[in-house]
Write a structure and sequence with these properties.
The chain has one domain: Jelly Rolls, CATH 2.60.120. By secondary structure, it is mainly beta. The protein starts with a strand and ends with a strand. The chain is built from two helices and 17 strands. Strands 1, 2, 3, 6, 7, 8, 10, 14 and 17 form a nine-stranded antiparallel beta sheet that branches. It has a four-stranded antiparallel beta sheet with strand order 9-15-12-13, with no helix packed on it. Keywords: Dioxygenase, Iron, Metal-binding, Oxidoreductase.
Length: 195
């Protein structure tokens, strides 16, 4: 059974042992079989490759069955209400990320995903599929000032196999550079609908 640990209340929390080691290896193998490519960033001009900001590898897979299975496991741990909305599922578009030495994703905010039926995402849901890399932590800027300064408080989450990380899209964060080894992540969004 996963165990929830709050890092910043409902804004940032982890679920230890969300996936088993066998499940993690299955998803790593599936992602490698699907084939990785460059990971773009989303800008006002659309998706672009900007290796100075983000240079990790990515593969996207749409999987409604996986979304339903993981949501059922995740639901008991989710905030029951965000801005008058209740959790209703996961975005079926899964993004697998692979980071090798020298790869990172600079400071950014995650964007919302909207459905035509009014559902929208509020939370990022990512699972670390392996451990054993050096670096690669997810860092959060907890300053409410809106800027990044060297003296701002930073929360550090270390990749651990099977650990899920859930956080509000509006929180500034970065995927720190991997220094040694390889880091694999499975990521999607938690969808909410008006209650």
């Amino acid at each position: 059974m996963p165990r929830r640990e709050d890092l910043d209340g409902d804004n940032i929390f982890v679920l230890h042992d969300f996936l088993t080691p066998d499940e993690c290896q299955y998803y790593i193998n599936a992602s490698e079989a699907a084939g990785y490519g460059d990971a773009p960033i989303t800008t006002s001009r659309g998706a672009i490759i900007a290796k100075d900001v983000r240079n990790n590898d990515r593969v996207m897979v749409d999987d409604t069955k996986l979304a339903a299975e993981l949501f059922e496991r995740l639901l008991p741990f989710l905030p029951a209400n965000i801005d008058g909305s209740i959790p209703c599922g996961l975005n079926e578009r899964f993004r697998y990320y692979r980071y090798t030495p020298g790869q990172k994703f600079d400071w950014h905010l995650d964007g919302r995903f909207y459905r035509d039926n009014g559902e929208m995402s509020h939370l990022t849901f990512m699972i670390y599929l392996n451990d054993g890399c050096t670096g690669g932590e997810t860092l959060f800027n907890l300053s409410r000032s809106g800027g990044i300064r060297m003296d701002d408080p930073v929360l550090r989450v270390t990749p651990t196999m099977g650990k899920a990380l859930v956080f509000r899209h509006r929180i500034l964060h970065t995927g720190a550079m991997v220094l040694a080894g390889t880091k694999y992540v499975l990521r999607t969004d938690v969808m909410y609908r008006a209650s």
